[in-house]
Every structure is written in structure tokens, then in C-alpha cells.
From TrEMBL:
<dbReference type="Pfam" id="PF03717">
    <property type="entry name" value="PBP_dimer"/>
</dbReference>
<dbReference type="GO" id="GO:0051301">
    <property type="term" value="P:cell division"/>
</dbReference>
<keyword id="KW-0812">Transmembrane</keyword>
<keyword id="KW-0133">Cell shape</keyword>
<dbReference type="GO" id="GO:0009252">
    <property type="term" value="P:peptidoglycan biosynthetic process"/>
</dbReference>
<dbReference type="GO" id="GO:0071555">
    <property type="term" value="P:cell wall organization"/>
</dbReference>
<dbReference type="GO" id="GO:0005886">
    <property type="term" value="C:plasma membrane"/>
</dbReference>
<dbReference type="InterPro" id="IPR050515">
    <property type="entry name" value="Beta-lactam/transpept"/>
</dbReference>
<keyword id="KW-0573">Peptidoglycan synthesis</keyword>
<feature type="region of interest" description="Disordered">
    <location>
        <begin position="724"/>
        <end position="751"/>
    </location>
</feature>
<keyword id="KW-0472">Membrane</keyword>
<keyword id="KW-1003">Cell membrane</keyword>
<keyword id="KW-0961">Cell wall biogenesis/degradation</keyword>
<comment type="pathway">
    <text>Cell wall biogenesis; peptidoglycan biosynthesis.</text>
</comment>
<feature type="domain" description="Penicillin-binding protein dimerisation">
    <location>
        <begin position="75"/>
        <end position="314"/>
    </location>
</feature>
<keyword id="KW-0131">Cell cycle</keyword>
<dbReference type="Pfam" id="PF00905">
    <property type="entry name" value="Transpeptidase"/>
</dbReference>
Amino acid sequence: MGFADDYSGKGMCRVKNTEKKKKKGFIPVRINILFFAVFLLFSLLILRLGVVQIVFGQDYKKEVERIEDVTVPMSSPRGKMFDKNFKAIVDNTPLNAITYTRTQTTKQEDMIKVARELATMIDQPDDKVTEREKKDFWIMKYPNKAKEKISEDEWNKFKANKMDSDKIYDLQLERIKKKDLEMLTKSDLEVLAIYRQMIGGYNLVPQIIKNQDVTDEEFARVSAHLASLPGVDITTDWDRYYPYGTTLKSILGRVSDKSTGLPKELAPYYIAKGYSRNDRVGLSNLEMQYEDVLQGKKGKILNLTDKAGNVISSETVSEGQRGKDLVLSIDMELQKKVDEIVSKELMAAKKTPGHELLDRAFVTMMNPYTGEILAMAGRQYVIDKETGKPVLQDFTQGVYTTSYALGSAVKGATVLTGYKTGAIKPGDYIYDEPLYIADTPRKKSYTNMGNINDLTALKRSSNVYMFKTAIRIGHGVYRPHEALPLDLSAFDKMRSSFRQFGLGVRTGIDLPDEQVGYEGKVKLPGLLLDFAIGQYDTFTPLQLVQYISTIANGGYRMEPHVLKEIREPVKDPGEIGPIIEEVEPKVLNTLDMKPEWIARVQEGFRQVAQEPGGTAYSTFYTSRYSSVKTTYSPAAKSGTAEGLYDGPKRADFVKAGKEIPMTWNLTLAGYAPNDHPEVAFSVVVPWAYQEDAYNPNINYKIGKQIMDAYFELKKQREEQGLNQNTAVQKVENQEQVKKGQTQTREENNGE
């Protein structure tokens, strides 16, 4: 038993040992396979690292060192402007341009070096270099001499941190004398003129070095040496071009250039809207009023830079787009004729003795139903400081920025106010006679007209009829040689009524800086009578045309506007883009007066121009001021406002201790045809003549000729088969045209 057990145990041990030997045989194989796999993996890893370091090492190094992408906006040309007949009046002309782009790593000495090179290739005017810039450049060029400007004691304070570097620099600037600046040569100033352009604006944004009068030789020379001029490039820039020269240029407005960029006072506003400091923007009038429309859509360039600020690559992300186009309500052919007429008559009047104070004249022509300004002109007589000769300069802004007493032209508003307040009724007769009011100069018409009604009062321009109407509005009673008791609240009643016509309030024109005129502060009975004939408060020439238009169209005060349409820009210069926005006629208010009252005044204005005895009859129907026969049935109201001279030379009289002379403002307002007006106009000629001078009737001469010009132009276009409203070829199927326009608008709205 024991043996058996012993034997059996040994056998089991042998079996176990055999199994262990077999297992030991498999283990080295597995380990070897594992080691081999690890060896292969490490080999592949080492190989890959070698490829990365040796083959792509520099590329990956740049990738690691790369910082955020820098996107730079690039300006685009501004939108164009067209007149109502789609004739370009403001365009863009291409310019050869030389630019410079600096990076974050560009050093001052690098820019100076490039500037010196460029100065040998281009002619750069130095007339815009300031004295401060010359001083800065002098310090850069002569650092040792600049250091000598600081005393030893001041340097010691600087080293002891008792004086900062800015103070040291300010002292150097202050102590640079004129003789020091004379050390700068003509060549130095050219370099400075280039350098000052280089440092404008931002890093990575191309700065215009020169874009005016770049010759073909300069352009080619720079182009051939771009490799040795780091940062310099050649491109095509643009500038504003005016096909009609100076015609209406002051209203079209000005645009800043690259050197001036954003106006200082408005820079924060524009920068907040995404502009760059050197962007060109509108500075006045239409260019400024519609800046958001005219400004082009900027292109974008993506610059990739490393940590040091070096540009790795540049890529155009999006192309820019020219700004949207404006179509104006102005008819430039009519505008040119109006300019010529005003200029001719103003110059002729100045040659007549007694007109030394006459220096300006204004005309406005408007569609009375839509408010579209068809022509607007202002001329001012000045003496050229260089030549000493008289010249006429554009003063069209004066149409809405200056105001004058308009005289009898406003009597239509007085009559209608009389109807409205119940002071008079249509057809009422009032006796025209001189008025003698205590402590007041005699008040009268230019002649005693006797017993007249409202129509005759307008036709012959009776002052007394208006005086007595104002007295009734103020509930007064006239007694010869006695004081005139009046309820002075009549001032408020009459002014409130006048404002409904646009007299004494802003017209709403889409141009900046509009003025409302002057409202007399003193309220006396005699002054109320003066107000009734347009010789107290002052109004603008634009307010006068809005007033006459309100009567012409039956009582609707229309907002005047110069913009007619906004259109998409197109690349083809011969094409006009689709409409984006169309300016609709806007009624500001409606006269709270009966239609028959307005019709009554319209009849009075018709008689003024068309019936013998009317103050403008000899103007329009006897060919006194024009050889063109009147066929367009005008209605009008003339005016003469007497008062002490209040023009720009008034201070000279006061300084010399001389008496202020009495002068007369001449006005004329009207419309035609009288039964369905298509054009209204105003003429204002301040300080036209002085006492004892011959009255040149310049207002009548201008008024007749501008209306002749309008209707002659209309006739010519009709004879040529052109549409009078657009001066484009007529189309037989007008319904089809309307349908097409409607479809285009719907498509634009959908987009």
C-alpha cells in the first residue's frame, strides 16, 4: 500500500515535469515575437520622427509658431451719381498708384531706407509736410545734434528718473531752430514726404504713397524694382471725376483723400462702424448725406503671420464691390442753363451803378407734386485775392443755408391766413390808402389803388390790403394818426399759418445744415404789418419754392429731395443697375384750408403773370426780358423787401462809423402751367440795389429765362421722341414697361 502510494506519487511528478518543459519551450517564442513587434513599432516611430524632423521640420516649425490669422479690409471705389436722365455726374477715374505695406516687424530704419530708394524713382511733392514732421525727421537724421539740445543737468535728471523720455523729446523739438531745419535738403524733404505716407494707417494695410500725377515712367520704374523695395507695390486706385465740371459740385459734395482719411472730429464714429483711419469718406452734402450708400463694400485679404509678425502668406478672401449708385432728381441740362442765366444776369447787374452791395443770387426749380429738385443754383460775386479780379463762385448751398426777407412774394400766405382766421372772405373789398399810425412811418402801397378785392390785391401787390388783413387778424381798429391797438397773439397765429406752407420751418430736404431763417423777437403792431408783406421774418430761397409749390398743387406741402433712386452698381459703364430703393413723394402736411380758398389765390397768381396790370405780366407776356414767347401759362408772385443792409459788409460800415444803407431784396416765385403745374420756381436776389439806384429787375430777368429754358428743353426732347420726365426714348407699350418695372422690384425685394 505504501509502496503503491510511493510509486504512484513519483509517476505524477514525472508527468508534471514534462508539462513544465513543454510550457517553457513556448515562452521564449512568444517573447521573441513580442520583442520583434516592439522593435518594428519603434523603428517605424523613429523613421516617422526622422521624416518629420528632416523632411517637414521647417514647415511644422512655422505651423507651431503661427499666430492668429490677420484679416485686412481693402477699400473699394465709391458709388456713382447720375442725373434723372441717367447721365453720369460723379464718376470714378482709375489712377496709377504706388503703395507701401508695413508689417509688425518693420523697423523705422527699414522704412527710411525704402523711402530713400523710392525718392530716386518718383517725384513726391513735399508741400504737405508739416514743421513738426520736419523736426521729427531732423532728430532721426541728426541724433547727436539732437542730443546736444539737452543740457547735462537735464540728462542727469533723466538718468535719475526725475525726467521721462517724452519730456526730453519735447525739449528737443522745442529747441530745434529754423536754421537747424535748413540742414534738411530737398532730397531729405522728398524722403520725408514719402515716409510720412508710409507710417499712416495700420500694419498690413497698404498705404498710398502716390496716386496723383503718377507718370508712366515712374510707374514702370517702381514696377521694375519691386524686388529691392520690400513692402512697395503698384496698383490701380481711383479718384472722383466730374463730367460736368463745377456744375452743382458744391451740392454733390467733397470726399477726403487717402492722406487725410477720416475727418478728425468724426473718426471715432466711423471707426466704430468698421472704417480704417485712412478710408476716404464724404465730407459734405450728398457725399456725406449718403455715405452709407456710396461707400463701397470692402474686400478682405487674409494674412498669415508668424510669432515675429512676418507675413507667411496672403490670400484674397473676398473681392470688394463698388458702392451703390445714386440717381438724382436733378436735370443736368436744365441745371447748366440755369447756372449760365444766373451768372450772366448777376454779372450784368453788378456793372450797373448803385449795386455795390449786390453779391449773390439764388434759383430753385422743383416738381410741385413730387418734391423733386430739378435745378438749384446759387452764385456769389467775390474778388479773387490773387488776381484782384471779380469772379463768381458756386454758392448753391445758400439756397437752404441762408435766409432773407422775401417781400411781397409771401402775400399768398397772408391772404389764405386771412381766409382761415375769418379776417377776410374771398371777394372782400378793402380800400387801399396810406396808413398813418402814431409813432410809425407812413405805410402804403407803391400807389393808391382805391377800393380793391383780394384778387386785385394779389395781382397788383397791394401792401395796404395785407396791412388791413393783419389788423383784422389781430382784432385791431385803424384810426388815422392814432396808436394801433392789436392783440399781439396775431404774430403766433400768422407764423403758425405760414409754417404750414414751409415758411419758417425746415423743408426736410435731404442735405445737411438746412437753416430755418430768423424769427423777429420784438412784437409791435407796426412789425406785424411788416410781417404780412414779408419784411420782418426771414426765409430761405428753398422755403419760398416749397411755399409756392404748396399753393400750386392744391395745398400739399411736399418734402423736397435731391435723391430719386438708389441702384445696384454694375461693371459695364454703359449700363445702369436695378433699383434698390426709390424715393416716394412725401406729404409733410396738408393746408387746413378750403380748396376754394386755395383756388382763389391760384387765380390771383395767374392774374399776376397773365393779365395786364399784373406785376409780372410785362415779364412773361411782353417779351421785356426774353425774346421767347410765353406759351406755358405761368402763375407767379413777385416781391420787393426794403430794409437796412444786413449782408457781409455791414461790419465795414459799422467799423467806419458810416450809416447803414437801405437796400432792396428782389424775389419772384411761380409755377407753370397754372392749371396743372409741372414745375415751380423761386428766385431770390438779396441787396439787389440801394437807394437812388436803378432797379435792374434782375429777379424778373432770371425768372423768365429759367422758365423759358425749362419749356424749351421739354419741347426739344418731345421733338426728338424723348420722354419729358426722363429724357430717354419713349416706348410704345407703357403698360409693358410698368409691368416689367413691377416685376423687377418684386425680384429685388425677394432677394
